[in-house]
Design the sequence.
């Protein structure tokens, strides 16, 4: 059976047949992200990838380069001549150049900065000062701005002149003589306005901007809420220093969701794709949590040991421990997950804590009642248990669900208030808490009703 | 202590003092999303909100209306006169009008459609035919397009003329005489090109488009991958029928992450904010899963009952059941969560199944070894257990971790292959599977080594 054709194979075949012009043509029909994945697939044969990379037109080369993994970028940079590297660096948008410098080892960074022209180098160094997780760390400094006295015609002329170097011309910014942000104007507004009007007359004065040091997740939240295409970033004196564009905001939204999901499953978050992560790195991101949770589970064991005699006299109780523990864990996780996501999306705040807990208590009451009723019938009809034992198990169920949902809703909110990531208070942690609690409830009720 | 001032209170105060002009001025400084949250905060006093809504300038009224919850929208529509409703409907972008019609009850829909002009009504009805979760369901039909023979000057003139009704002018589309999509051109490209060139000369011919029936999550994936601002939607014959804009893609990305997270926690997903969801709805979205998982946990109980005699002779084994079950559940969830997220982001595909499982087996081996070693020492030194019993527990740990990670990595991939949502195979489900398995391993090893 012939193997399935892939783009990687097609390119490799063309390369072996020395059809370089055709390779160039093929690449030209493709999107940078697609070209990058082809190079990613060729990763093993490094010499070939450098030769292929040279076939790309300058601009496409830079755009594809940005989409590649840091490892591949490093390999390529090592293979490229100083002049070739300079061409790439010149074509990069400033924020991409900064990302690159942040990812590369020191010796490669030196080569990159040496090839950048002095102005770019100064700007890269300036931007490296902002924390990686801040608005300053994800912004670009290449944007179009006007003085409010510009006419619309002048503004459009300036866009025609300088627009090619800006990351976006859809949103332009208006700054006064001191560089302070006074308004924004979209290219659409400019095109639909009279050419003789001034920018100051047509601009939007109610600008939502962020400070350079604002957390990037807050920036992403603003994009999500307002549907912006770009957002201005200002310093402490409201001077415009950069803009964040929607594509970078999407990356933040995505990374944020992945991070939440990973933390919720007790994994130290990473931004590397799974298949590219080494076994050792995966082990390292998982084992501390497993050890911690294993130690916590010891308490549950201690409770069981403590009630060993009671258990020995009513061994039937042991069979229902997993069901009680699992149900407690599941109900608690449902509550905590809902609250954690609500906190992430900004739908729930600290001031809502009483509304949230009151809602969860009512939900828990109805869930507990339903589960206990179903269970009680099953215990009597199928397991043919003594009615008192069935009662013990069903009552435990109601109380466990109540406690689990209360804990599951309070802990994430409190943890956010104290400055921790609420996602830590997800399934594994809640399960461990609830396990111990459900056993204590179980034995307390059992000793009351069964006199053990 | 005086209560904290809120926008809602400020507006309510201004309204009581009949300062209507000032309310209008205040609203004009605000963003539609912010105005909508103020109305959301006023929800109880319905009469007031309709009166306030009438104070908004027409365009801002429509834009704020779109951001409100369906309940509030319905309340407002009921209060508005036919003429007022018509003004809103006229100002709505088509995709927002379609969303509105999809959310409202039948009698309200009738009123809305009656107020829409015949052309809009026809377009709304056309778009209602697409499934809500498809590209057609989230697209808008208001875009700018040219024939390739247009000159750049003509194109810019057309934008000036029709741009005000289009959702975006940043990306424009090029269609031939049959309406087939042949290229795209950005406003930036047009402005930077010579006025006498034709659109056909300056357009980008390699267009990535989606079919109307494509799943909206696939569309969101393309936005994430390529960093688009808009994407063309075509029918089966490559005729351009609409575009999806990045703000709608962000909503899909976000809803998708929330949905994944909810399904992973065994909750039926909903798109309603938590605080707006009734206790009954929350109960309904959680209880089926809890019942299902409770029934599954019965198997674990049956295994315990089966080994009751063995347990009675070695009661010390009971104390370690929670630790083994929890650790198994946690390690399995780590694997399944990582794989589920990888599948969602398109980083992992079915063909990777062997690479994934092999990676997880190696990770499991090292995790299992670390946990077992730590545990073995603790059992001997702190719990002072017999060495054979410690060995039984530690060996069980290694095997449980191996099985848990294997199951946790295979199930999501298989479930996606069979057309189910892989997120179902997350923590609660994996925990239930692993619980039963870990007990069987435990008792098997115990009976071999302890001869019980």
Sequence:
């Amino acid at each position: 059976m012939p193997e399935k054709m892939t783009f990687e194979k097609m390119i490799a075949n063309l390369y072996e047949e020395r059809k370089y012009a055709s390779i160039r043509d093929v690449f030209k029909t493709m999107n940078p992200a697609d070209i990058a994945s082809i190079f990613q697939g060729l990763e093993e044969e490094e010499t070939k990838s450098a030769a292929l990379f040279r076939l790309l037109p300058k601009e496409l080369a830079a755009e594809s380069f940005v989409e590649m993994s840091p490892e591949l970028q490093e390999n390529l940079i090592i293979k490229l001549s100083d002049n070739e590297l300079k061409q790439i660096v010149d074509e990069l948008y400033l924020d991409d150049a900064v990302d690159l410098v942040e990812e590369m080892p020191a010796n490669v960074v030196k080569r990159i900065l040496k090839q950048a022209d002095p102005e770019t180098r100064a700007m890269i160094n300036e931007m490296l000062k902002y924390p990686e997780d801040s608005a300053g760390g994800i912004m670009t400094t290449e944007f179009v701005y006007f003085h409010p006295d510009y006419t619309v015609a002048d503004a459009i002329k300036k866009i025609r002149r300088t627009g090619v170097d800006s990351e976006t011309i859809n949103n332009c910014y208006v700054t006064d003589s001191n560089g302070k942000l006074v308004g924004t104007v979209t290219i659409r507004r400019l095109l639909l306005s009279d050419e003789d009007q001034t920018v100051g007359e047509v601009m939007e004065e109610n600008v939502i901007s962020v400070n350079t040091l604002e957390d990037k997740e807050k920036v992403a939240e603003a994009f999500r809420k307002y549907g912006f295409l770009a957002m201005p970033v200002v310093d402490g004196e409201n001077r415009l220093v950069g803009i964040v564009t929607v594509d970078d905001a999407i990356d933040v939204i995505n990374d944020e969701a992945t991070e939440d999901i990973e933390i919720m499953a007790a994994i130290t978050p990473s931004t590397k794709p799974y298949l590219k992560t080494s076994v050792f790195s995966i082990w390292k991101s998982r084992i501390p949590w497993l050890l911690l949770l294993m130690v916590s589970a010891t308490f549950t064991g201690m409770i069981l040991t403590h009630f060993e005699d009671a258990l020995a006299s009513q061994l039937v109780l042991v069979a229902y421990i997993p069901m009680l523990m699992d149900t407690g864990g599941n109900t608690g996780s449902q509550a905590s997950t809902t609250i954690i996501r609500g906190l992430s999306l900004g739908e729930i705040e600290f001031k809502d804590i009483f509304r949230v807990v009151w809602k969860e208590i009512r939900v828990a009451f109805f869930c507990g009642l339903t589960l206990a009723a179903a269970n009680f019938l099953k215990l009597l009809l199928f397991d043919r248990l003594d009615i008192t034992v069935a009662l013990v198990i069903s009552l435990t169920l109601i109380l466990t669900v109540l406690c689990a949902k209360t804990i599951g809703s309070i802990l994430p909110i409190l943890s956010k208030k104290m400055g921790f990531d609420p996602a830590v208070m997800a399934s594994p942690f809640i399960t461990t808490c609830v396990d111990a609690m459900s056993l204590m409830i179980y034995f307390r009720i059992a000793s009351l009703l069964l006199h053990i």
In short: Chain B has three domains: 7-129, 145-246, 274-450. Chain B touches chain A through 107 residues (CB under 8 Å). The longest strand of chain B covers residues 181-186.
